Amino acid sequence: MTTITLFAPLAGWAMPIAEVPDPVFAEGMLGDGMAIDPTGDTLHAPCDGTILTVHAARHAVTMAMADGTELLMHIGIDSVALGGAGFTALVRPGDVVGAGDPLIRFDLDRLVTGASAAVTPLLLTGAGVPIGWRHPGGIVAVGEALFRFERQAAAPGTAVVSGDERVRTMRIGLPHGLHARPAARIVAALRPLAAEVTLVSAGRQASAASSIALLGLGLAHDTPVTITARGDDAEAAIDAVAALLTREVGPAAPPPARTRAAAPTVAPLPAGAIAGIAAAPGLAVGPACWLRRTRPQPAARGEGVAVERGRFATGIATVRAALALATEAQGQAAGVFGAHREILDDPMLAEAAEAAIDAGASAAAAILTAAEAQAGLLRAAGDPRIAERADDIVDVGERVAHAILGTTAAGEAPPAGAILLADDLLPSQFVALDTARIAGIALVRGGPTAHVAILAAGAGVPMTVALGTALESVADGTPMLIDGDAGHVVADPDAATRRAADTAIARHAAAAVRAGSIGSASVATSDGTPIAVQVNCGSAADAVAGMAAGADGCGLLRTEFLFLDRTAAPDAAEQTGAYRAVMEALPDRPVTIRLLDIGGDKPAPYLALPAEENPALGLRGVRIALAQPALLDAQLAAILALAEPARAKIMVPMVASAAELASVRAALERIGGGACALGAMIETPAAAIGADLIAREADFLSIGSNDLTQYTLAADRGNAAVAAMLDGLHPAVLRLIAETCARAGAVPVSVCGGLAADPLAAPILIGLGVRTLSVPPARVAATKALVMALALDAAADHARAALACASAAEVRALARRFAEETGR
Questions:
Q1: What percent of the chain is modeled with pLDDT above 70?
Q2: Centroid of chain to Cα 468
């Protein structure tokens, strides 16, 4: 016997099945389980399994676990009457899903107002499955344990019922078809009768002893169906089934009185919108254009070792020259192309390809095989973000193969102003795009804190992610609206939606012109509170761009660009030169240098770090620095060697305790660095709750909202299966930011993560007490303009309202209303 745990498929209030306001569910006719009164807007898989059915009204889904145990999830009571309005199915029958995968997205406001109750049961539909532990009730988060049951060996089969057979053909009279309630009534009505009953329609059949099987027939109103019954009670059984297929029985009871604050109304989506997650701000309209990569098509066998080795050398040289030119690109793009150059120079890759050539393979086929084999080693590590590096290796292999063949990976260039559509997008793919031709990006998968989202925000390209399979139905050339602030797209928007979008785009363009006139002037809220707007940098080129945009300094200099994709760590002199270039690009302004944030998704081979089952929770950030004191000392010495060390601020990543920061301060003082300010990044719930303790050791605190979001919501930002759950405007994340600001006291707090650049989030952050926002170069001017239009008292009231919301969707709806009311 094995104990199985089912996890909450929704965020909300957990309750026993007996409290569901419908006797069919409350009396266990469909099975035992628990229910959730939702505050979220997405139904997730409570376990691994296979989708059996998705009701035509998209309000209910059934699935089977590996052992055959069947589950029913039913969003709301009487919700079938909505006819699918407000529901978006993200899966189809036959899909294999993992625990936490999104199944159905729904409009919570429409559900609450249109159904008799929003309560959502999760049921084990098999009879006699014993449930042991159950959640005691109250608030639950997606993925929290809801109940456990014992998996038992299958019971011996029952004897076959003997007797006469009866057959009757009829049409479904139920106005909403055969849904969960009548299916449960049929199963209950047949239980005391000596009869085996089967329903057949359109070549499919189902046993009437299984509500899941009945739902799988998908019987709509007026659908013909044949009822076959065999046994002593066959006639009575057919009469009972026919009656229950003719009219609804047993209306739902009113929901029990419960004390709970009313949820803020979530703004309705435009007609035809596909809901996703906001990833990079902005609004755009343009033709849809799918990103399609053409894989090389080489001959398997070569034309001789000498010929193919020559072709291989020419292909390598061609790609190396192209990468050398591309590395001159600005910002983080240069880092990606630099990483590709390191992959190209990897001797193991070349040796494997040459060995295949010697064995008779063509040069192009050899490099593809070698790249895929090397990529497979990284994919086997089990970490999704390390797997992204595997895709980069395949990218490089394909570039070499195309160079050998004289072909290209890119299809036709997207039309000017296109909305680019893709399943997902790697940073290497993004930087290869001509972003000047792209109006926006919409992804089936992806997450709002992924590296490509950061690149898109930095380039000023609106992006919406986690749109699900509904995006796949959009054809090339379809007119499309993308809203990177609200997090949705609209295919073929109607005239009213298009007019509203054109008005908003014109308003944003005018605001951009006003923002550009601010220049390097310091800004304050409309009632006089100074707010610094700084720039996030990954290179000196980013610093130059930030200075041109009027940045008040650098709030985050990522130093990883010096340490990754090389065989040995840079010495202090090389580091000093790189930091000096950034400081010279931002004269007379503070530059916050983050100590090496390596480990986790950013491995360095020369550190020989051990393999970790969960790198995100292992050796990374400050833990690496303290475990490698020579590495830490060299970086601190490099910073102190700057001509103006007092202008440099040292920021320590992934601090979880005051003791860690104290250890770094001790090392700084030992080297002789009293002139530099020392601060800590707040990226974990422990650091946020312990901000008062960390502040005793810190000169400043800076919130890294991307990591704080993934650790708070327990969702890996590199895992596509859960990326849609990540939103820095989730109330839990905002509450931790509020705690950080409150506990920091007189120690200043900034935000340098992606949330600072979100125009919907910035007023909330300022209202919570943040006084420095560090954003990509492309967002500096707009963020300064936003600050000047903001009244601090209004921002504080707005922030308090946001903290009272129940979901990120509610916060974003609230923030959009605030923006409209304040004229932004």
A1: 84
A2: 11
The per-residue b/e assignment along 651-682, b for 16 or more CB within 10 angstroms, e otherwise, is bbbbbbbbebbebbbebbeeeebeebbbbbbb
Which structure tokens are listed for 37?
């009164």
Q: Is 47 a catalytic residue?
A: no
Residues 6+ apart with CB under 8 A from 672: 640
pLDDT at residue 389, as a whole number = 62
Asked if the model's pLDDT at residue 601 lies above 80, the reply is no
Catalytic pick among 537, 554, 676, 752 = 752
Three-state DSSP class for residue 528: coil
Count the residues in the chain.
824
For the ranges 83-87, 177-181, 297-301, the lowest mean pLDDT is seen at 177-181
Encoding tokens for residue 175? 């106005």
C-alpha angle with apex 301: 299 to 305, nearest 5 degrees?
125
Give CA–CA dist 551/583, Å, rounded.
Answer: 13
Tokens of residue 73, six digits: 């999830």
Average pLDDT of the chain to the nearest whole number: 83
Q: Is the pLDDT of residue 531 over 70?
A: yes
Q: What CA–CA distance (Å, rounded) separates 32 from 599?
A: 45
Confidence grade of residue 474 (pLDDT, cut at 50, 70, 90): very high
Q: How confident is the model at residue 341 (pLDDT cuts 50, 70, 90)?
A: confident
Q: Is 402 labeled as catalytic in the residue annotation?
A: no
Beta strand 277-280 pairing with 283-290: unpaired
pLDDT value for 151: 62
pLDDT of res. 379: 61
- The b/e string for 546-577 (b: 16+ C-beta within 10 A; e otherwise) is bbebbbbbbbbbbbbbbbbbeeebbebeebbe
Q: Which residues lie closer than 8 Å to 448 by C-beta, 6 or more apart?
A: 277, 278, 279, 465, 466, 723, 726, 727, 728, 754
pLDDT tens track for 709-747: 988 988 765 555 565 677 889 999 999 999 999 999 999
* Rounded-to-integer distance, Cα 732 and Cα 356, Å: 53
How far does Cα 34 stand from its chain's mean position?
27
Of 684, 676, 688, 681, whose CA–CA distance to 702 is shortest? 681
Rounded distance between C-alpha atoms, residue 644 and residue 675, angstroms:
9
Amino acid, res. 218: G
Phi-psi region for residue 629, left (φ > 0), alpha (ψ -120 to 50) or beta?
Answer: alpha
Catalytic residue among 55, 451, 508, 798: 451
